[in-house]
Write a structure and sequence with these properties.
The complex is a heterodimer of chains A (115) and B (115).
Chain A: E1 5-7, E2 10-13, E3 19-24, E4 31-37, E5 43-50, E6 65-69, E7 75-79, E8 88-95, E9 105-106, E10 110-114
Parallel strand pairs in A: 2-10
Antiparallel strand pairs in A: 1-3, 3-7, 4-5, 4-8, 6-7, 8-9, 8-10
Chain B: E1 3-5, E2 10-14, E3 19-21, E4 24-26, E5 32-38, E6 44-50, E7 56-58, E8 64-68, E9 73-78, E10 87-94, E11 104-105, E12 109-114
Parallel strand pairs in B: 2-12
Antiparallel strand pairs in B: 1-4, 3-9, 5-6, 5-10, 7-8, 8-9, 10-11, 10-12
Classes of the chains: A mainly beta (115), B mainly beta (115).
């Protein structure tokens, strides 16, 4: 079956603009995760959805970041008033039920460049 | 603070030689442990995971990892590397055991294979 997909694959924007990143999880997966990977760094956990609910948003780097999910389907990560330090690869993952034993399947990522 | 450490940023190994990538974690209890591989232009792929039981875990592509509680380590090994193993390797933990806090990743080890 299809894996996790993300769009766009690349996004170049100017400082101060808003961007929206999209993630389509594997069909039937109730859990969805967003991560950020800065150059030369490991992945940084941002937010977790169980269904369309995100119980803890404290991992989002600032109030310029927001995320939502429609049902148990697509999720969008929005960054308002982008800054150069937002440049990174944003990765989405999904898992069957969100239990720790479940494997997280990752998408290819969106590479965001803020000029 | 809770953390995952991969002490080696780069490792160079000759094709056919054995490989060991180190991972240490700092958590109060035994977390769930994972190794992921990230090849250029591709998303992260799970190599193996440990939850409980046998401390030697077999994964895909001929990789294995050994959990050592006394050393808080989860090192990845392969008896004989292939040129296609050149990639970035990430150790990760799920500290909550429930997935909701996401995975905490090390900064990665870049594996270079010499012919």
């Amino acid at each position: 079956g299809a894996g996790v997909s993300q769009s766009p694959s690349n996004k170049v924007t100017e400082k101060g603009k808003d961007v929206e990143l999209r993630c389509d999880p594997i069909s039937g997966h109730t859990a969805l995760y967003w991560y950020r990977q800065r150059l030369g760094q490991g992945l940084e956990f941002l937010i977790y959805f169980q269904g369309n609910s995100a119980p803890d948003k404290s991992g989002l780097p600032s109030d310029r970041f927001s995320a939502e999910r429609t049902g148990e389907s697509v999720s969008t990560l929005t960054i308002q008033r982008t800054q150069q330090e937002d440049s990174a690869v944003y990765l989405c993952a999904s898992s069957l039920s969100g239990g720790g034993i479940d494997t997280q399947y990752f998408g290819p990522g969106t590479r965001l460049t803020v000029l | 603070a809770q953390s995952v450490t991969q002490p080696d940023i780069h490792i160079t190994v000759s094709e056919g030689a054995s490989l060991e990538l180190r991972c240490n974690y700092s958590y109060g209890a035994t977390p769930y442990l994972f190794w992921y591989v990230q090849s250029p232009g591709q998303g992260l792929q799970l190599l193996l995971k440990y939850f409980s039981g046998d401390t030697l875990v077999q994964g895909i592509k001929g990789f294995e990892a050994e959990f050592k509680r006394s050393q808080s380590s989860f090192n990845l090994r392969k008896p004989s590397v292939h040129w296609s193993d050149a990639a970035e390797y990430f150790c990760a933990v799920d500290p909550a055991g429930g997935g909701a806090d996401g995975l905490t990743f090390g900064k990665g080890t870049h594996l270079i294979i010499q012919p």
